[in-house]
Amino acid sequence: MDPAKRKLVLDTIHWFNQHSLSWAGGGHIPAFKPVRDSEDFKNLKPNSDYAGLAATAVFDPVSTLAGVASPVYDAAGKLSHKSGLTDYRDWFARSFGRHTPWGDQDSPALVTAVETALERTLSVQLMHGSEKPRIEKLPAGHVLARQGDPGSDIYLVLDGVIRIDRDGEQLAEYGPGAMLGERAHLEGGVRTASLVAVTACRVAAVHASQFDQDALQELSGGHRREDHSAETAG
To answer: Is pLDDT of 106 > 50?
Structure first.
């Protein structure tokens, strides 16, 4: 597309975003955050009359079936898998035209296991602990950590999918919320496997000394079980 024409298109989209309050009058929720957070939107009628119903809403039962980008529940109703991509800005900008269910270009379904309760606790500690985390953006195919190299950082996957490779074998894939890299700290400071970005990723990293040793042992135990299951299945 001609650059001047592209600018006109983007300027038009931006105008619609900025003036999406009128569209919201039909009961819609604007995607543009400044409008969505504005007092004008919060006081909009009839939206504001029923906004409080969210606190008492009765939702449909969970199902093993899921729609586009939906979480996946197991037969017991427990959340088991979710989308491996959480970067809404990137998705919102790209998921149109040929990349929609009505287009002619398929995109891979990136679904990863849900993080554990321990990982949720440790992720809060990583992001808000005494050491400021280092945020890294990785292109697809980038090797975040290589088997056999020295290492002392623990990684939190913020967005995207990271694959675990050992001795050339692909063991598992992890998505947002996963904590990785603890075994090097526990086992002599050497990486026991490679961490490879399957998609473009964002990760947060801090030194492993920020965490309780027992918590890291528990985290490592879960990863060992997952690795063993993958090796057995292979």
So the answer is: yes
